[in-house]
């Protein structure tokens, strides 16, 4: 008999707490409220299930914030789940089944509500809350994990073979999960971990091989009908956990708590014709594993990413929202840049998308936040570039790229700029400047004008006009306001002069660790060619060369297109040998690239197959530079090229078979490490779900020539990211889920599952996982 649910009296402690936790366990088969706390003014804090996922809303005095944890799905599956919400000065965190699934910048807790409080828990035929409590302190991630419900198997193996009654119960299961713990006696060993048969024929198995793990469905003649394979080295004599989760249209294969494969299409026990046998540690013909399966269970439940992590004992990773939807009134934030400065300060940059989450044309500003404690807390938002106008008529900046010069301490940020109404698809070819470096304007008939050094405006032929332009690019005519040259036509009634409608590459810098910033400076006059429509940054970070004759060179990755097809892009770098005073455009790996129709010409090619888009660069220990590039090639792998002359030219383009490419920005970072190692981390979105997602972080010990370990950081929504090495040696990851915000996570090197401080040659040669 279920005990009566005891509810706390919120009008005593922790009524006036600014920080705290809401803790509950529940079972649900429908959407509805889990908990709603309402004050006398009808403000509320609420946690509900909507569409099978959790939604938290803080509607308090002067505060409104919604956290949609859309990646933690199937909470209405009729099985028990745990939910914990914590609020501190760092923001709000939402945990499901022991692991964090979302965070927000909102700091509203019970103290933000007014007057007497009313508590509603479950009810109205919706979710059934099994336990509930409110605490006057925020639980730690470890405490949350310790309180979380652990999924229990429907059938657990007490021997190597299930009895006939249990097998009969499972014969109709078309969805569910398998979890087992095993070890193999050494490398090059293999065998069946689990096998399922019917009528003397094996119809389903899970095997460990010298090259990885394979889950298969077999036909009556033994041919393979379906196969899900995870490449890696798990026949190493060590204990490992493997889970198969079949449901929601796919098979997910997890090893040691991390998803290795997501394969569309389902196949499970009920797909075996005449199922009458389920065994572990051997196949259906009695051939035994060269090792042992210590424990195994079958689950009617389709286990989630969080539930598998809980079963496998994965350490929690803490995440905080640095910029999110509604923060400072913005519709969205996108495009992370992240940098650890020589002082130890961590600087995070973002597009502040004021009007909508869209790319340019849009009202987009460049903003930063600073952390002086290694990313644990963040200072207030600072607006570095505030573009004039509103909505699609506003000017915009987009795609910041940061780098610090250690010789001067100066932080350089390069960023794309568009006048109002313009973005990458609709800007025109040109630089926006004349040969003397004077800014050009255009009237509605296409006639050109130029801004002189004193701010006066003259015609292209040199005739004076009554117009003037001030430092903020405001336009006056005979002393009267006449708009701003950055606005779109029609945004200011009667405005007749406008910026040339092309893309501008701009540079700002800070000499005090990001506390204050210079005014933007246009680099188009020295970098952009007249035939280029777009010339812009690859967002994220640049690098400073450490080795060889060009040590100290600043390198920033960029890409550009031509006037024939705006999607025909070429990646390259710009570099500075005088601490950012002047910049030079290097050659692209696409220059003279062999194609079926001859050497590629970046000025005229149109075939998007050869496009090289957003890129990231890292310096190897030998002084060469590795560029990893987003691209449109049918190989669907990250493109690579190597430069031996500091980015001035590049070798042959290759494709890294270990790095999936789904048309999304990559980021990479060189790490400090022991002598003889060339540590590098790489992150990108690796799977279309069909939305862009499955953020994977990989570690290389040989400068990106191979990948020693990979970890699926977030198996669902995940798009752009930026990496930094924190002062304590952890890895900082600032990442986005595209529509809701930017989130900062700390990843210790132990996250990769390798003994990195004493890595051996054998570990360096482990196949990519």
Automatic annotation (TrEMBL):
Q: Which GO cellular component terms, listed alphabetically, does the Swiss-Prot or TrEMBL entry include?
A: cytoplasm; membrane
Task: Please name the top-level EC class of this enzyme.
Answer: hydrolase
InterPro entries, per database record: ConA-like_dom_sf (IPR013320), Sialidase (IPR011040), Sialidase_fam (IPR026856), Sialidase_sf (IPR036278), Trans_sialidase_dom3 (IPR023364)
Q: Which domain of life is it from?
A: Bacteria
Query: A single GO molecular function, which one?
Result: exo-alpha-sialidase activity
Alphabetized SUPFAM superfamilies for the sequence: Concanavalin A-like lectins/glucanases, Sialidases
Reactions this protein catalyses: Hydrolysis of alpha-(2->3)-, alpha-(2->6)-, alpha-(2->8)- glycosidic linkages of terminal sialic acid residues in oligosaccharides, glycoproteins, glycolipids, colominic acid and synthetic substrates
In its UniProt record, which GO terms are filed under biological process? ganglioside catabolic process; oligosaccharide catabolic process
- Residue ranges of the Sialidase domain? 503-731
EC number in record: 3.2.1.18
Q: Which family does it belong to?
A: Belongs to the glycosyl hydrolase 33 family.
Q: What is this protein called?
A: exo-alpha-sialidase
What species is given as this protein's source? Answer: Actinomyces respiraculi
